[in-house]
Amino acid sequence: MRKPTGRSDVPTAAHAILGLLEMDEGSSHGYDLARHFGDSQPLAQVIHLEPAMLYHHLKRLARAGWATATVEPQGTRPARQVYQITTTGRAELRRWLSEPVAHTREIRLEFLVKLYLAERLDPDLAARLLADQFDTCRRLEASLVSQLAALTPADADSSDRVFVRRVLELRLAQTRAAVRWLARVGV
Amino acid sequence: MRKPTGRSDVPTAAHAILGLLEMDEGSSHGYDLARHFGDSQPLAQVIHLEPAMLYHHLKRLARAGWATATVEPQGTRPARQVYQITTTGRAELRRWLSEPVAHTREIRLEFLVKLYLAERLDPDLAARLLADQFDTCRRLEASLVSQLAALTPADADSSDRVFVRRVLELRLAQTRAAVRWLARVGV
DNA sequence: GGGATCATGTAACAGGTTACATGATTCA
DNA sequence: TGAATCATGTAACCTGTTACATGATCCC
Prior knowledge:
2 copies of one chain form a homodimer.
Chain A: H1 12-24, H2 30-34, H3 51-64, E1 67-74, E2 77-85, H4 87-98, H5 107-121, H6 123-151, H7 159-185
Antiparallel strand pairs in A: 1-2
Helix pairs in contact in A: 1-3, 1-4, 1-5, 5-6, 6-7
Chain A binds a DNA duplex through helix 2, helix 3 and strand 2.
């Protein structure tokens, strides 16, 4: 018998669904929610979610106690599973929305989803999120700068060192681009 | 019975291992290769590879005919599985190394691995890869610029439109950062 | 007649993560 | 004595992708 594998780490998609349940307030079932991730919808520009995974996440949200499902018979069609966010689900959503992402690479997906939802659910929260994300990226930038500074003094330029320097320079460039973008968005 | 599920898409990790087999030329078994992905090794700054996945990929490389395994008994320890790259494996590696990545988000991981290996296996190939990647990113940049231009004329500024514009602006910023970095590296 | 729409999924596969199994040997 | 090294993995879980099942109804 194994230990119950100490994992946590709820994926962005699950939180996105949780946010949509909060926005759509009331009647949301899988097929309905799927439209948010369909062609030319704003969220679809940022996160892809196939029906298979959508239904999967809905079940997990229910298992976690963040949503409840009620069955709505449809006559001929399969019964609708209408989901509703719970109080603990709402608390979890808020917690997630207040938390900036830790890495620059997560801006493109996770942060954009947070921003989309926060702006539509609570503009004040969105403003705070933006400010916190800006600070986080600034700190990342400073850390990269000091890592680079610690690197260059050693004059031995093995190709491995050159490579590591380039990696840091790329990260710094990406992080600075994010910082400038955040500053422009957060006016 | 299902169709054999039309997938392909070999992951970066597998190609990284293939590249290391080509570099280490001869005696490389799992435990040995693992050192490349250990603390403070240059590749570890870019890609994480736990032993479990390393051994998994080695088996898949053998299954694909890109490497062959020969058993080297060790007495008391488990026998070493020594892997060697094959001719088709070498061809596949070369093909992969010549191909720039299609998306800006893939620069951070997949492109950096290609660059690391190409520079160590064939500097000319590395130079061509850099040039091709630069062109690809330039085209991406142009595409994003025209997408933004197509967006702004419509004056109706729904919050959804604002969001989509921001997404494009972030991508453009990230792509431009990559372009400048590539230009600096590729001197 | 034939495809899109509604509404739910399952099956089979993939990569990836964490924890653990095995068992002798070397070193602090 | 007990941790690290060598060398291989497996087990159990996860997200994610693609293909397909079901079956009525609506619209061209």
